[in-house]
Amino acid sequence: MKEFYETYKVYLTRKNLEIVALVVIILSALMVFVSAIPGQGVLTLDKGAIRYDGTLVRGKMNGKGTVTFKNGDTYTGNFVNGAFSGQGKFKAKAGWTYEGHFVNGQPEGKGTLTTEANVVYKGTFKQGIYQNAH
């Protein structure tokens, strides 16, 4: 190590160290910027029980996509940091569907729930609960 230092100490000037520091800062900033660019991809989670196909940002489900669960349930719509958020449609294998607005993975706001028996509940939902019942 001492021989290495003796050979290259002539290059260890303040100016050269400042240039190296500046290059490292610029490369770090570029990496942060590039990792935030949305891209299409597929994620397989929980040992294959959950499959996501859609927009990824920093390895998370962000933007439009479709998630399919092992039991056959599907959700197609918008995601924010891995949760159903925004407009989307959840279709259960059991036969019921919810189409409308989601917040943090739950129906929230305007939407339509159609049961297995084709009974339709259209209106406002709060934390997944229909609010227009009389």
Structure description:
With 134 residues, the protein is α+β, with helices and mostly antiparallel strands. It has 2 domains: 2-35; 40-130, Single Sheet (Histone H3 K4-specific methyltransferase SET7/9 N-terminal domain), CATH 2.20.110.10. The protein has helices spanning 2-8, 14-35, and strands at residues 39-45, 50-57, 60-69, 74-80, 83-91, 97-103, 106-114, 120-126, 129-130. It is elongated, with a radius of gyration of 25 Å. The termini are far apart. InterPro entries: MORN, UCP034300_MORN_rpt-cont. The chain crosses the membrane at residues 20-43. Keywords: Membrane, Repeat, Transmembrane, Transmembrane helix.
Give the key terms:
MORN repeat protein; 2 helices; 2 domains; 134 residues; Histone H3 K4-specific methyltransferase SET7/9 N-terminal domain; MORN; alpha+beta; UCP034300_MORN_rpt-cont; membrane
Can I get a quick summary?
With 134 residues, the protein is of the alpha+beta class. The protein has helices at residues 2-8, 14-35; strands at 39-45, 50-57, 60-69, 74-80, 83-91, 97-103, 106-114, 120-126, 129-130. The chain folds into two domains: 2-35; 40-130, Histone H3 K4-specific methyltransferase SET7/9 N-terminal domain (Single Sheet), CATH 2.20.110.
By DSSP (H or I, 4+ residues per run), the number of helices equals 2
Work out the oligomeric state of the chains in this entry.
single chain
CATH 4th-level superfamily of the largest domain: Histone H3 K4-specific methyltransferase SET7/9 N-terminal domain
Compute the separation of the termini in Å: 81 Å
Number of strands: 9
Structural class: alpha+beta
CATH architecture verdict of the largest domain: Single Sheet
Shape assignment? elongated
What is the radius of gyration computed over CA atoms, rounded to a whole number of angstroms? 25 Å
- Beta content comes to over 45%
Strand ordering within the main sheet: 1-2-3-4-5-6-7-8-9
Q: Helix coverage percent of residues?
A: 10-25%
In CATH, what is the class of the largest domain? Mainly Beta
* Number of individual domains: 2
